[in-house]
Amino acid sequence: MYDSLPRYEDTLAPYACRPSESRGRVFKEPETPNRSCYQRDRDRVIHSSSFRRLKHKTQVFVYHEGDHFRTRLTHSLEVAQIARSVCRSMHLNEDLGEALALAHDLGHPPFGHVGETVLNECMKDYDGFDHNAQALRLLTRLEHRYASFEGLNLTWETLEGLAKHNGPLVDAAIDHKKPPAQLSFGFRDYLPENDLELHTYASAEAQIAALADDIAYSSHDLDDGLRAGLFEFDELKKIPVVAQVLDEVKWTYPNASKDVMIHELVRRMINRMVADMMVESGRRIERLAPTSPDDIRNAGQPTIAFGKDMGEAVKELKSFLFERMYRHYLVNRMASKAKRVVSDLFDLYITEPECLPTEWNERAQGAGTPETARVVADFIAGMTDRFAFREHAKLFDLNRVSL
């Protein structure tokens, strides 16, 4: 058993997830002497091939558009930093919070949300595609690193947090052996062997990871958009909370360069959002007076949240970024290419599964079948942006001889 576990658990709040009280793994494994179960979960995520591929998956800009723009990997690391810091400050389990933050985007296909939208449309007759369900599928089915089991065999708390970090997926308790059709395929496929209690909220650590994601992508997409020249400082005056911080930075550092101004703006925005989340969450915890993680799960509402004003401010910022960044014509042009790449690859693979790599073709069960469609979706979802472009060129450029 982890030697310092009792001392560490003494520092945790009563409603934190404790390694000694974990509901364990589907496949029993002996504990290790130098790491808690949640540390092992985090380490397994980091060492997975799915995590490495995030390096070349789009956040907003495709990998070749600039070395300084964020990818899914750098975004996940930034989310993990925020989640871990907040968990520590609130006396929650920072290892679990970090594991969830690092894993939360593993299920995204290439080309960001555009890739997911197209892949879901391609799969509309075959149970659809959802990146959260795909992350669960990766961690429980598709990662092959151990001789004794499929997936990474993560703890119940990590899998639960991954599934429910944005809230309950069903309105009431269900028979997990017969999950309802409304659930995405990845959840329906996995639930019969492990009830993740999808009708409750997730742990406080998982809720922190979810808001850390909001904080990271809204503030850092602001950073990338400014550096890419998609909008300028003056345009941010439309967003009151950003305008207030920007005026503060300009007043404090009137002669600062644009790069420094951007960094000061972004770091102060992060600090404000984190501080607001901790204050509001503290209020909710005080009212709830939880004495266990299950009290958080059964609270009937999020326990970790922004205050009303900051919540509205974050919505305003997201709306601005949607209009001025995610729908900018330069981003739209690459999104248009991405749509064709994903759609073309899917159509080819499902009608000619023999074009899939051998190990994937062996899983297929004939052209046009639901089983083959899921194999194709799994294969495409695992692609990086550059691999998808290369595959498309190999298969559709008739002048290209080398495959």
From TrEMBL:
Pfam families recorded: HD (PF01966), HD_assoc (PF13286)
GO MF annotations in UniProt: dGTPase activity
InterPro entries reported for this sequence: dGTPase (IPR006261), dGTPase-like (IPR050135), dNTPase_2 (IPR023023), HD/PDEase_dom (IPR003607), HD_domain (IPR006674), PHydrolase_assoc_dom (IPR026875)
Listed PROSITE patterns: HD
GO annotation, biological process: dGTP catabolic process
Coiled coil: none
Domain of life according to the entry: Bacteria
Gene3D superfamilies in UniProt: Hypothetical protein af1432
CDD domains noted in UniProt: HDc
Keyword Signal in record: no
Segments forming domain HD: 72-218
Keywords: Hydrolase
Stated family: Belongs to the dGTPase family. Type 2 subfamily.
HAMAP family documented for this protein: dGTPase_type2
NCBIfam families the record matches: dGTP_triPase, PRK01286.1-1, PRK01286.1-3
Name of the protein in question: Deoxyguanosinetriphosphate triphosphohydrolase-like protein
Species: Kordiimonas lacus
